Amino acid sequence: MSASKNAYAASRAKSNGTITTDKSSVIFWVLAVFTGLFMFWAPFQRALFNGGTSEFERSIYSASVWSSIILLLVAILALFVFKLQERKDLLTILVFIMPLTYVISLSNSASHYLATNMVYIQMLYATFFILGVFLTKNKLGVSIVSQLFMISGYFIVLFGLLYWLGNKTFAGHLVGWFALMDGTVTNLYRDAIMTDSNGLRLTSVFQYANTYAAFLITITLSSLFFIIKSRKWYVVLIHAFLLIPTIVSFWLTLSRGAIVVIPVVFLIMMFFFRMSRQILALVQLGLAFCTSLIILEKVTDIGIGLQKQPSASESWHGWWILLLASLVFAGLSVAIQRFGEPWLERITARFDAKKYATFILPIAAVLIGVVGAILILSDTGFKNILPDNVKTRVENINFQQHSVLERGTFYKDAVKLWSDYPIIGAGGGAWASLYEKYQNNPYTSRQAHNFALQYLVEAGALGFLAFIGFVIAVGWFYIRSYIRSSQEKRDLHFLFFIIMISLLVHSMIDFDLSYVYLGAILFLALGGMLSNSSSGELRLKSKLALIHKIFPASIAVLSLVMFFISAQLLSANGSYKQTLEVVKTSQDYNQVVKPLDKAISLHPAHPDYLLTGQVSRIGILLQVYNQMQKENPNDPKKSEPFFNQAQDLMTQLLKKEPHNRVVAMQQLNMLLIKGNKQGALEWSNAQTPNYPWYMDMYEKSISLNIELAGEANAKGNAQEFNTRLDSALATYKDVLTRIDSLKNLPKEQAQGREFAVTPSMALNIGQISYMRGDYKGAIALIQPRMTDNLDDQVNRLLIRWYLAILQKQGTPDQALMNKLIAKDPTEKQSVDAIVAAVFPAK
Q1: What's the pLDDT at 17?
Q2: Contact assessment for residue 189 and residue 204, using Cβ atoms and an 8 Å cutoff
Q3: Dihedral sign (CA 693, 696, 700, 703)
Q4: N- to C-terminal Cα distance for the chain?
Q5: Using one digit for the tens of pLDDT, what is the confidence trace for 71-81?
Q6: How far apart are CA 665 and CA 648, in angstroms?
Q7: 92 contacts: CB under 8 Å, gap ≥ 6
Q8: Dihedrals phi, psi of 86, to nearest 5 degrees
Q9: Secondary structure in 3-state letters for 501-559
Q10: Under a CB-based contact definition with an 8 Å cutoff, are residues 433 and 660 in contact?
Q11: pLDDT tens-digit map of 676-703
């Protein structure tokens, strides 16, 4: 049977005007295959992390190509089965409001590159939402999507544990044929285990422990749901067996935020269960966590030891402990479900009919949780059952620890940013592009660590309200249908609710949804929640066929447009990768720029291709310019075209990326290359407010003012001389004010990057003090920054000026002078020139 006939058969299976996807449809099975491939492929591409560079974009563009194909297939299916009859059907159309708000924010974007990428990502999310709606319309579709999610999730868990228990080579071979592996190490997935100040942390495919912990919350609670709802003992056995490795992995992430979030999500789940299931959920999860804690210290120690010294026997020891604990819990879990569930249902049946019965146990669970938290966080000794690294993390759960205070700063800075772009936002990637302008202290974080605030600064109030309204609408239809449905129908789609609530709650304290894989899963789950919900019929509806065909036809056209754009961007990335390979073997200008120019033609104004990547067009042009300058110093016609071309590209890039610090610094350097000191000074002064916690612009502004002051002095212009020095001192005062403001940070909060007066800046301000006759002030600035390293040019300048000041005061340091002269005999003349210089009085 052809795809069109099958799709037509699907349309006949509609009931009450809702969309029903026939399981015999060829398109249905193709979509199911695509979904499965995505769930296994995407996590191993660093979970499609939106890192904002060419290194991360290839996988995202590949996913965009495949999602375009999915959207086209859905459009073909929708031509036969879609009818705009119910209120919920509107949401299948209104999901495109979210990418539309990102398109609108392009007009105000801080970074054109990052903003357009977010438009493509939002289109991918809309596609997965519609996929969820169409694919989970029947019981088979729900079963396929649910099982694919759980199996792929368990596979990610086992993959991470393979790395933890010393089997990284086997794990690498297992996924190396399709995963994004480390290019420098054969068959190893980069950073599946990471080390930070807290010790070793399990990250699996995400390369970030906190997001892995958020994913494990989803898998843990989903597994728990399947345990308590399943009537088949072998289903309970499988999920219970795999729940222990999942919870052990959860502990190994050392994520404090996840420890706080998981009881919150669990509590929300509890309100949707009848009393017998609430008791079973509490018992099963409590027993699972107790089992994990019994073996946790041993598994932790074995894993830490194996990262230092591989050992097959120790690895097997760890696996046997984990397998035995999993088997014991699985057996207990099956017994509880087999014998405990019927008994609990009988004795709680009379409570289920009472109006507020479902609130009793959740409230009790809150009280038990508070008691448990007190026991663990207090000095009762209960927490001593935890391994040292986990115990340390648990002990540090409070509102005065660094990560909480730092996140609070991010959130305040995000609000400041949003207040300047309140309606339509500053485009996708706005936080990464603009946070340096608004930050309270010199931290480094290209993520706001809060999905809601990051969405707000990107899409503004318009986009944020569209997203919130959309999620609330889906939730409203789902919950209303849940209340009115039978238990069997409730169970069918509840996994999607677990996924949605787990990811959204944890994303309020971290950047989980910057992983496109998790965002796609979220929207797939939202589609699954909506697909079987009931809603009232539209008041304004039509039987005219054209009305119902407009939407499928529109998304078909949109899918083709997205396919073309995504394929073009993917091709551009491929050409850039080819450039990186050519550079390894050849320095021939034409060979290098051929694939690079192709990449730029396919993806214009890409910051990495033009400037910020490992190899860039502007960088190559400037290298050639410098080389031509050396070879033909008296013939600028040979070198100038290369510089002019570089400047033209830089001008184009600045229009698209006006808030990229690397671009701003390169423009400054190019002005200096051409000797345009006044232009460079004006540029650095204009850019300093955009990067107030970086010393580069301050240093350049001060040094340029001093150079221009020297030129004014040579011309006898005393007024300009003093104006320039005053300007340099004003900039220095701004730096000191900022340094002083850092003292107001809470003692538990680290300031981030170092922000202090540099040797170069101290030299410059010391020079001003000297020029104005303040020799003591000059010595106080210069002497503390001096070292014995005479190979360092800045240090030699410090020593030169220091000796000149001493000589001016009549207290020379001959021993130090001798050392300096031994390094370079011309230094004596340089010191004497400083002493002999005459500067006008202020």
Answers
A1: 38
A2: no
A3: positive
A4: 94
A5: 999 999 888 88
A6: 16
A7: 82, 129, 130, 133, 530, 551
A8: -105, 160
A9: HHHHHHCCCCCHHHEHHHHHHHHHHHHHHHHCCCCCECCCCCCCHHHHHHHHHHHHHHH
A10: yes
A11: 999 999 999 999 999 999 999 999 999 9
Residues 6+ apart with CB under 8 A from 289: 247
Least Cα distance to 724 among 709, 711, 734 occurs for 709
Q: What does the pLDDT look like over 692-739, one tens digit per residue?
A: 999 999 999 999 999 999 999 999 999 999 999 999 999 999 999 999
For range 763-781, the mean pLDDT: 93
Report the length, in residues, of the chain.
842
User: How many other CB atoms are there within 10 angstroms of residue 750's CB atom?
Assistant: 14
**In whole angstroms, what is the distance from residue 127 CA to residue 527 CA?**
10
The predicted structure's pLDDT at residue 106: 96
The band of 213, judged by pLDDT with boundaries at 50, 70 and 90, is very high
List the one residue out of 2, 23, 133 whose CA is nearest residue 10.
Answer: 23
How do beta strands 193-196 and 199-202 pair?
antiparallel
Give the Cα separation of 459 and 437 in Å (integer): 18
State the chain's maximal CA–CA distance in angstroms: 103
pLDDT of 3: 43
In the chain, the amino acid numbered 281 is: A
673-677: long-range contacts, CB 8 A cutoff, minimum separation 24: 673/622, 673/643, 674/643, 677/704, 677/707, 677/708
**Residues with Cβ < 8 Å from 122, sequence gap 6 or more?**
98, 99, 102, 428
Helix, strand or coil, per DSSP, at residue 350:
helix
Angle made by CA atoms 389, 507, 46, in degrees to the nearest 5: 75
Phi, psi angle pair for 196, to nearest 5°: -135, -165
CA distances from 54 to 179, 570, 575, 621 (A): 17, 10, 11, 20
Phi, psi of 739 (to 5 degrees): -60, -40
- Nearest-angstrom CA–CA distance, 776 and 593: 55
DSSP letter, residue 616: -
**Alpha helices in 657-694, H assignment, sequence order:** 661-673, 677-687
Query: What pLDDT was estimated at residue 13?
Result: 41
Tokens of 624: 């050639």
Q: What letters, b where the CB count within 10 A reaches 16 and e where it falls short, cover 220-258?
A: bbbbbbbbbbbeeeeebbbbbbbbbbbbbbbbbbbbbbb
